[in-house]
Amino acid sequence: xxxxxxxxxxxxxxxxxARAGSPCSCGTASVDAALTRRDETWGLRLSERAxxxxxxxxxxxxxxxxxxxxxxxxxxxxxxxxFRPFPRLELSAQAVYGRSSLTEGGQGRDLRGAADWFAxxxxxxxxxxxxxxxxxxxxxxxxxxxxxxxxxxxxxxxxRGLGAWELSLGSVVDHDFSPWNRLSAFVEGGLRLPDxxxxxxxxxxxxxxxxxxxxxxxxxxxxxxxxxxxRWEADAALDGRVESGSGTRLWxxxxxxxxxxxxxxxxxxxxxxxxxxxxxxxxxxxxxxxLDVSVSFSx
Length: 299
Prior knowledge:
Layout: H1 3-13, E1 42-57, E2 63-65, E3 71-86, E4 89-104, E5 107-114, E6 117-126, E7 140-149, E8 166-178, E9 181-192, E10 202-203, E11 207-217, E12 222-233, E13 237-238, E14 241-242, E15 248-259, E16 266-274, E17 285-298
Antiparallel strand pairs: 1-2, 1-3, 1-17, 3-4, 4-5, 4-6, 6-7, 7-8, 8-9, 9-11, 10-13, 11-12, 12-15, 13-14, 15-16, 16-17
């Protein structure tokens, strides 16, 4: 395998499935939000995610749309289980299975199997205090740590997995302006361990991810949200040599919704995420539209 192909693979495989946007704190498919409440012990979530690519950005941020006979899409089914050993601590793990397909130059490829799995711990360390409290704390804070296991197959063109173990740490800050409006910010960093998924010694660069979400409750059962996220990854190294220009950057915007009747333990959520075509902003990445729907139960 040539160094050029390996460099391309390093870029492609570093684009792991972007975390779905958080519809609201009352039930989401996002790592920054808890699946369970503090008065609950466990929860399960089943989600379906579809991604449809429209084109790609090169290392200079130039966009090339797919032609009439080109397409790239993936469909994933995920199962997440969460458990609270203590009211402020939630432990969760997610398994993913799905299919990716690519049609290019009249040739089609299809890959089915598991995608990468992950485990997370969320520790809710601070709570926002009400306006009348003697000690004012205008926001709530939670820490989120995680481990991504490279279960999915590392393939340069059909990305089912990162190909490397990843350790991540982040924090989510929420501020409730009223009982019906919330602003959330989530920041996470990830470090990847060296791997040989492409047949050579490879080390993917560190990753940073940030997302801001504004949520509005139409009622006690229904919430709508809008969010914007930015993902950045440093250059990868192959055989100890940094491949300049192999880093990635991706900006996405989206909307979401969540519904849970007050007497029900079942929540349904959905989101749409899109990468606007802004020349020079996104590099070494794919411009896609992502759809996510999920149903969860907690007790």
